[in-house]
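Input/output pair, single chain:
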Amino acid sequence: MRGLSALVIAVAGCLSPGAATANPVKSLYTTVDLSACKKVQRRRLRAWRCSGLAGIPVYVASGDLRQFVSVGTDADKRRAATQTLGAANSIFSRGSERATVEWRFVRRGERQLPYAIIVRFHTLSPPQSGDVLVVLKVGVRETCHVAYIDAEANADAIVLARYIADEKARSFDCRGEPLFQGAQGQGRM
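Output:
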């Protein structure tokens, strides 16, 4: 009985409000729905500005069978707005104009302060297709690609993407090149 009581106390301690503040990292999802986004004029690209976490703009552009995603008040001027995968790609599943963005953030009072996002890119390089999770750094002045994870070659790809977002995105130098993380399969990135 003493062991059961200790277990109940340990579980109750994990569920207490103090335990929740010990790990301030949070994750929320927003949807990019092009029908609800504002079109932006760009030469050679079709572009949209959408609403993200806490009203932070999400910039999505398409050109040359590839898509670009960036976030921030001047998202179209950040490095991420010029970064994409080598293979033809889209953040939208075939026939859809809706995609999900996972925001990694810390909470300061009532404010949500994002430091990274994770976006799934669907690739097509005939005859192969694939899914790549792209981890992006979200900074006050810069947004850029940090890492690429082959979602089909890694059974726990989202766990790896979250780890990289939490451990590497904040300190990543956007002048550097994104890294390939985990196993790489047959699909092109």
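Confidence is low (pLDDT under 50) at residues 1-23. The longest strand covers residues 111-125.
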